[in-house]
Every structure is written in structure tokens, then in C-alpha cells.
Amino acid sequence: MKIGLIGLGIMGKPMAKNMLKAGYDLTVSDLNKANVDEVVAAGAKAASNKEIGETCDVVMTMLPNSPHVKSVMLGENGVASFMKPGSVFIDMSSINPVASKEIAAALAEKNIEMLDAPVSGGEPKAIDGTLSFMVGGKQEVFDAHKAILETMGASVVRCGDVGAGNTTKLANQIIVACNIQALAEALTLAQKAGVDPQLVFEAIKGGLAGSTVMNAKAPMMIAGNDKPGFKIDLHIKDLNNALDCAHSVGAPVPMTAEVQEILQWMHNHEGGQKDHSAIAQYYEYLTGIQIGR
Q1: For residue 97, which of 119, 138, 147, 291 sits 20 to 30 Å off, Cα-Cα?
Q2: SS3 of 159, please?
Q3: Beta carbons of 98 and 248 less than 8 angstroms apart
Q4: Is 3 helix (H, G, I), strand (E, B) or coil?
Q5: What does pLDDT average to over the chain?
Q6: Which 8-state DSSP code applies to residue 276?
Q7: pTM of the model
Q8: Angstrom distance (rounded) from CA 130 to CA 125
Q9: Cβ neighbour number for residue 41 with a 10 Å cutoff
Q10: pLDDT tens column, 253-291
Q11: End-to-end CA distance of the chain
Q12: Residue 207 in 3-state DSSP?
């Protein structure tokens, strides 16, 4: 089975390396030549998007947002125009589920199946191959390609038909964002009340408030580390998709709207490329204190 991967950013590059470690025949493409060269050095082949479409049985993308996936797949000289009938497209990008369904419908006319398979876990889990995949698509297509995703993830769950994967990812991103905001508020409260945020974290992480989000982001907030594992601008994109989806189906999402405003404030104050744990800096701006320091 020949696999093509388009998109070798923070997430795509380590994901590609994990597929190579599992022994897959992988061809890659990205606008960043240095990233391509790095993955080629790990055992991949480099090719144009056109060549990937012509030669690969499975085409995968890991791109920033809906317009990028649509352009790569369905735009002028898009990859879909070169793919063989019976081939499969797996989009691991986090995009609007409406866009996933539109892409799937266009591919179906060419007898090309699709899975939308966004991930959660950020760069650390992309590196160690323990991402969580939320997948939408036909059961038989999922069953036939689950093993590929398992080279990159510790959890691979089919959530329904095409679009269900990205709907699940939106739910995930709401929960993550609201957890990070709550964590920043709680540690700010501790600091203002004269209690060491590190000790607060250690005391509560094993209880009901404990979470994967807390374990990953509290140490970053306390250390003032905003190196991006998942950038604020990308979370803004995800929450914009969540809000659009919620508005279209009539779901109330007031907490999502609130945390989106904080993320947008960070973007407007040169924080868009920082890790989403840098939400804490919004509270530091309001209070004049730095968590843990």
C-alpha cells in the first residue's frame, strides 16, 4: 500500500515519521522544503501533490483549515483530479464538518472514499505516537485503514459517517479550551491568595479536577513556558468552526464564545503563535502577577 501525506507542520512531520517506523511506503509533500528533507532523511520519498495523487493508494492531509484542504484536494489541479477510482482520502486536519461532507461528496463522484480523522494530543503525542483519532466514514473503509492510524495514535475511534470525526474534534476543542481557561483562573486565584500554584497543582491533580489538560498545561503556566505544542491561532480556528457548527445546528455554546474572546485578545496582543496555555497571560495582564513566579 502506497501512502501520500501532504502537510508536514508541527503535527504532520512527527506523524509521518511514525508511519515510516511502522514500515509504510510513504511519499510526502509540503511547502516547507526543510521539513520535507527531514522526513525524506527518515525514509520517505518526496513528490509533488500531482504525483502523490497519481501514485498513491491512500492520500492523507494534515493541513491548517478547511480552505487549505479544499484547495489541495479540489482546487485547480487538485489532488483529487489525479487520484485513481477506488483510492482513499484520509483528512487528518481539524476542519469544519460541513467542509468534510462537501469534500466527501465531490470525491464520491470520482469513486474515491473518504475518512475525516482529526487528532487530539498536540505535538508531544504526535511525536510519541499516542494521539487520539476521531474518525468519520464508512465502517468498511475505517476497518481497512485503521491500522495506518494506529501507527500514530493510541486511540482510534469511529464516531459515525463522514463529518462525525470533525464534529467530535470540535467537542474536544471546546472541552480543552474551557479546561485551560479554568486552570488559568484557578492558578491565578491561588497566587493572589498567597498559595503556591505548584502545590495547588500537586494537591488537586489526582482528584476530580485532575485531567490530561491540567497535567500538560499547569507546569507550562507555572514555568512561563509558552513554546507552542498547539498554537493559540489554531485553537481560534477550531473554536470558530465550533461556533459556526453550533449556530447552524442551534446548540448553545456560551462558554466557547467566552474563551474564544480571550484567545482572540491574545492573538491581538502578539500571542497567536504561543501555546494555548498562554491563556494564563491574559490573567497575568489583568492582575499584574505571574503565575508561579
Answers
A1: 147
A2: strand
A3: yes
A4: strand
A5: 96
A6: G
A7: 0.89
A8: 5
A9: 9
A10: 999 999 999 999 999 999 999 999 999 999 999 999 999
A11: 52
A12: coil
Q: What is the pLDDT of residues 169-189, one digit of tens each?
A: 999 999 999 999 999 999 999
**What phi and psi, each to the nearest 5 degrees, are found at residue 174?**
-60, -50
Max Cα separation, the chain?
A: 65
What crossing angle do the helices spanning 197-204 and 212-223 adopt, rounded to 10°? 170
Mean pLDDT, rounded, for 43-55: 97
Q: HSE of 86 in the Cβ direction (CA atoms, 13 Å)?
A: 2
Q: What percent of the chain has pLDDT over 70?
A: 100
Cβ atoms of residues 177 and 230 within 8 Å: no
Q: Which residues are catalytic?
A: 169
Helix (H, G, I), strand (E, B) or coil at 112: coil
The x, y and z cell numbers of residue 1, run together, are 500500500
All cell numbers assigned to 57: 493508494
What cell numbers appear for 222 in the block?
A: 507555572
Backbone angles phi, psi at 153, to 5 degrees: -135, 150
- What pLDDT does 250 receive? 95
**Residue 293: per-residue pLDDT:** 85
Grid cell, residue 214, equals: 491540567
